[in-house]
Specification:
The chain has 829 residues and is mainly beta. It is 11% helix and 46% strand. It folds into four domains: 16-95, Carboxypeptidase-like, regulatory domain (Immunoglobulin-like, Sandwich), CATH 2.60.40; 111-406, no CATH class; 452-533 and 548-659, no CATH class; 667-828, no CATH class. Keywords: Signal.
Length: 829
Amino acid sequence: MKNFILSAFLFFSVSNFAQIKGTITDEKGNPLPFVSVFEENTYTGTTSNEQGKYQLNVKELGKNKIIFQYLGFKTQKLAVASDSKTITLDVKMLEESFALNEVIIDPKNNPADAIIKSAISNKKDNSDKTGRYTADFYSKGMFKVKDLPKKILGKKVDLGADMASNLDSTGTGILYLSETVSKITFEKPDKLKEKIIASKISGNNRGYSYNTAALSTYDFYDNTLDFDIKLISPIADNAFSYYKYKLEGSFYDDNKHQIFKIKVIPKRDKEPVFEGYIYIVDDSFAIYAIDLDIKGYRMKNEFTEIMNLKQSFSYNSANKIWSKNAQSLSFNAGVFGIKFSGTFNYVYSNYEFPVSFEKKTFGNEIVAFEPNANKKDDAFWNQIRPIPLTIEESTDYTKKDSLQTIRKSQKYTDSIDAKNNKFKVWDILMGYNYKNTFKSYSFDYKGLLNISSLSFNTVQGFNLDSGFSFRKWNEEKGKSTSISTTFNYGFSDDRLRITGDFSHRFNNINYAYISASGGTKTAQFNGAEPITKFVNSIASLFFKDNYMKLYNLEFAQINYGQDVANGINLNAKIAYEQRKPLFNTTDYSFFKQDDIYSSNNPLAPNDFTSSAFDQHHLFKTALSARINFGNKYISRPDGRFNVRNEKYPTVYLIFEKAFAASEKKYEFERIGASVQYDLSLGNKGILGTNFRAGKFYNAENIAFMDYRHFNGNQTHIGTTDRYLNVFNLMPYYSNSTNDAYFEMHLEHNDMGFITNKIPLINLLKSTMNIGFHTLAIPDRKPYSEFTVGLDNLGFGKFKLFRVDYVHSFQGGIQQNGVVFGLKILNVLD
């Protein structure tokens, strides 16, 4: 009832606004987009759309003075007097004539440098003026695609029926269009509270737009701005190390403020920098406007060609504050000849600048949606929307919304499913998928020739998976249930192993879930599985190196987990396990056929008759926790979505116990902890850290697979983006322990801070990684590694590789090696 009254009040308030609307053009009649339109000395404003059309809601029409402000054109102030609720006011803007400063105190100095220095010295004062506020916020986002082919690398491009129907015959059209209206409360540096009043996605009345204020805050008074990497502000404290400046002229706004137009020029092309123009107000040296480009390679995003960010600020003479009233972010990107573009427009209005906020104003909830935020009708949007829709946008809404009812109907979804669900004879070999969209369930059969699962190891030889799976879901309630079974057949040991899995997620609020699994499978002694099937197959078949060591596991296991408090997730597990040793059954390889594989015993690679353990069984239980300190979250009617606070580390805790074993010696207890944290060093990169420690109790004679194993690497191939969980030259089981342990991984990625400044190296557009890894266990000398290498290597837009030099030492034994990172293996395995 409370939310209904609030919504009714908001709608009533909006419907009682008077509206000024029209078209803004230049002298030749060309429409001008992104023109700031606002009422003088108020925080009521809007901006024009791509066709130059605008609409401004004001409290009443009387003797209003409306200001039209656009970079490169003279600011206009027009008086409006009318008794009507709606008035049309078309505006023709004249180009600004920029004048160079006539007075230069010291001809040897660049006048732009003096202005920028003043802007830097005054930025704290200017920033503090808008350091605490409430405001109304509107955003509109659109993604478009051009020249999308029907197939890429032989694979059919499947966007789904809804999206595909929006494209014309050339593969061109709008993929996504959404709008958001919200009320925001903000305090620097990063306290935010946002209430979403209305959210709209074209063709999806169940969707919730992510165009929030939290994702659109770009403050050039800060030293850096976050665009995946930290870009240097043109008025950062160290800006002169990255930029040159040129004063191209000045002009006066309607309040007689002199505005300096300064060109921002990068000193080095590959640095994380902007280029374009910044407009600075004389006397206060506040930002008047921003018009800056960001090249994709400068933010280590090769798929983005260029991004443009515009900001416009308006002045209120009552409180002498320059506040941001409009922002536009647009980009062009492309890959495989396909071109993508996007535009996000933002309007800030109705500012209030309180002296302070109450203590409980800000909490862990950063975004909340009204229950019916995505149910607002067209009348509501037509009244409250500050930026008129373009013809293209209006057509997209009309088309998609009209088709939505049809596409959600059972008749339509059944017809689409019937087409896709047709069974073909070769599906017996290649696999088959059946889906009932209306009833929200699917069935999948992997096929007898599931080639993607084919792998090789010396225990099974070549082995292949097949299986069945069933899934049912409810998107609105966040529920999902899946049941699957996997059949794995080894051709060399001539054995079929079968496992089954069941899982159910109860909701999207606390993410409670339960799962059960069981069956028979081959398992690595190291449960973390540091050796992927793909890498082991290549190492074995081409180089006769069978690093993967396996045992036979018959098991039954139940898991339950959920969020028990903000940022705290608990998981409980109980399992029955019967372990049996396995031996090599094949010596096959493509090359080096005269060489001999090592045995399947990780403790004795040359012993082909003894195993690393005796057959036994036991029960294991474990209780683990993940703690994200300072965790934030977004509340939506369909769920709660966690947003990790990057200021704080993530902590993992575990208690594990083995009991009811076939022999008492296999029973033990273990406690463990891990702390993971990424320390941001601004434009100097990120220091990733991972600390782990633990201790076994009553574990003198436990089975080898229950030891604490550490992720080594003898293949010289890296398969992950970062090496914060691996020792790259350590043999896989050389330091396994059933006692206490401590491991530390540090890796600093400079994000180009160093490599951008090194001639020739900077042409690679790469980043530098410097790492240190160490492991300490009782009765053994510590193992340590130093690494240095280049990341973000590749061809064209595809940066899938890294190369590291590694130096390791343990007890006087030193090794040197090179590790080649193939991040594409994350996809292949």
